[in-house]
Specification:
- The chain is α+β, with helices and mostly antiparallel strands and 235 residues long.
- It has 2 domains: 127 residues, no CATH class; 81 residues, 2-Layer Sandwich (Gyrase A, domain 2).
- The chain contains 9 helices and 4 strands; from the N terminus they run αααααααββαββα.
- A 4-stranded antiparallel beta sheet has the order 1-2-4-3.
- It is elongated and about 60 Å long.
- The chain starts with a helix and ends with a helix.
Length: 235
């Protein structure tokens, strides 16, 4: 509970504050969605995936801090049960569980870890210039289409992303999760990350030899639908 409800949202705030000014709005939408999901439901994947591939070292720090938080709570027997995960919903349900002890002490512990996560992440990100969401290398302002605010043309955004992926003929499979467009390509050399980043997405990740993940944010479903239409039309 201290990590999922407080620690990771603190990390999200640190990444938001260290994002570049011209990319902060786009990164903020991704980080806010992940932080709220973690706080309310205890589902941490959207937020963890936002930095674990871009800055693996931060994930190791996250794992260490999680272990410390659990050790402290267990040592003092601050115990709460959960049915799904360790977010606010399960915390409230735990109030009526007989085996839960000193459950309210998890709140000050969580607040402490919010501060620890925030300052630790902020220091490491700035010290080592990690490319967390919103800190990716800039592209020429004249080359890209700013899709970070206002009414986004998802069809235009999808067309540019598909171009960067090497075109419809280079797509082997296409899917998406809560914040990312997940693609398997046929030729990795045909992928041009610079072209994809012209859409001002939060980042591009290569988790495997032929795998490409485009970090779009909460609006990823709309982009996915448009890319899918183009692939079916051109493929």
């Amino acid at each position: 509970f201290p990590v999922m409800m407080f620690g990771l949202p603190g990390a999200a705030l640190a990444m938001y504050h260290t994002a570049k000014d011209n990319r902060r709005k786009v990164a903020g939408s991704l980080l806010l969605a992940g932080a709220l999901t973690s706080f309310l439901t205890g589902v941490t994947e959207p937020l963890e995936f936002a930095f674990m591939f871009l800055a693996p070292g931060l994930y190791l720090v996250h794992a260490l801090l999680t272990g410390i938080a659990v050790f402290i709570a267990a040592s003092f027997k601050w115990i709460a049960g959960f049915g799904f995960s360790a977010g606010l919903i399960d915390y409230l349900l735990s109030l009526n569980i007989p085996v839960a002890t000193n459950i309210f002490m998890l709140i000050p512990l969580g607040l402490a870890f919010f501060a620890i996560y925030y300052f630790t992440f902020r220091f490491i990100i700035t010290k080592f210039d990690l490319k967390t969401p919103g800190r990716e290398d800039d592209i020429d302002e004249n080359e890209g289409e700013d899709l970070s605010g206002g009414d986004v043309d998802f069809a235009q955004m999808a067309a540019q992303i598909l171009k960067g992926l090497g075109g419809a003929e280079n797509i082997d499979s296409l899917d998406h999760c809560i914040t990312r467009l997940r693609v398997e390509v046929k030729d990795r050399l045909a992928v041009n990350e610079k072209e994809i980043k012209k859409t001002r997405v939060s980042g591009v990740i290569r988790p495997s030899k032929l795998g490409v993940q485009v970090i779009v944010g909460p609006q990823v479903q709309f982009v996915y639908e448009e890319v899918k239409k183009l692939v079916e039309k051109q493929g």
